Amino acid sequence: FKAELDGGDPTASIEFIENFLGRVIVGTGSPTGSGKVWVSTDGQTFSILGSLPASYAYCAAELLGSLYIGGGGSQGFLYSYNGQSFEQVFHGISGAIYSLVAVGGELYAGTGREGRIYRLDPLNRTQQILDANADPDIISIGFAKVGDNQFVFAGTGSTAQIRRSKLPDGAFTHSFKTINAPVSSMANIGGTLWAAIGKTAFALQNVWTSRFSHSENINDIGVGIGDIPWFVSDNSVYKIGNVADVKKVYLKLIDRAGN
């Protein structure tokens, strides 16, 4: 089947898909339109749940029984949906909210324009800027436990940097950097934090480790059945499995005399 949203606008894009309270929630946007949040009970027929006063609804995260939707354009907005009502929680964030993760009753948000990372308390309606970066866009954010400690990680939009903060109140510091590319997605899958950086999928296994390289940029990482990581590029969908076979390579060394 095919569900067509935003009237088939060729400039519109789907930014996120979430399962919430047995419903499919989809965020869309377009450069000249408004960000919209759609809801479906069967995955085929969609209706508009709400619209944002900005171009895109970029991301969503569940917290304390509500789904929070981040988006924006020149400024960021946060909305909530509890299964009944759709309402604005924050406005005037310094840039669009590109990514959200829920930790310890709060939301951590990666935003654009000024590279700021926010901590948002939607119940008490308080916000705090935790970090600002030279890279103007923080487009991915995630959570992981490393040993006995908990961390929030944030990825930049073009400089392939990952920064981290030890919870509850540690400053954001350098965690990882590679060749310049967007850190397009982060996902905690089976207790392991994955990050898509350019054409490579990395996993945090005490240290950041390259696990898979692709011919195209990896745009998104998600979880499949059995906590298997899947990723999406421009033209492909792949799953990342464990290597089952180990190959031995034998080298024949020949000296200059031919021995």
Give a structural overview.
It is built from no helices and 23 strands. Helices cover 0% and strands 58% of the residues. It is globular. Strand 14 (149-156) and strand 15 (161-166) form a beta hairpin. The strands form 6 sheets. It has a 4-stranded antiparallel sheet with strand order 1-2-3-4, with no helix packed on it. With 259 residues, the chain is an all-beta fold. The model is unreliable at 243-259 (pLDDT under 50).
What keywords describe this structure?
259 residues; four-stranded antiparallel β-sheet; disordered C terminus
Number of helical elements:
0
> What is the number of strand segments?
23
What is the structural class? mainly beta
Question: Can you write the helix and strand succession as a string?
Answer: EEEEEEEEEEEEEEEEEEEEEEE
Give the strand content: over 45%
Any idea what the shape is? globular
- Euclidean distance between termini CA atoms: 66 Å
Unreliably modeled segments: 243-259
Radius of gyration over C-alpha positions, nearest whole angstrom: 20 Å
Give, in spatial order, the strands making up the sheet with the most strands. 1-2-3-4
Helix content: under 10%
Please outline what is shown here:
With 259 residues, the chain is mostly beta strands. Helices cover 0% and strands 58% of the residues. Strand 19 (200-205) and strand 20 form a beta hairpin.
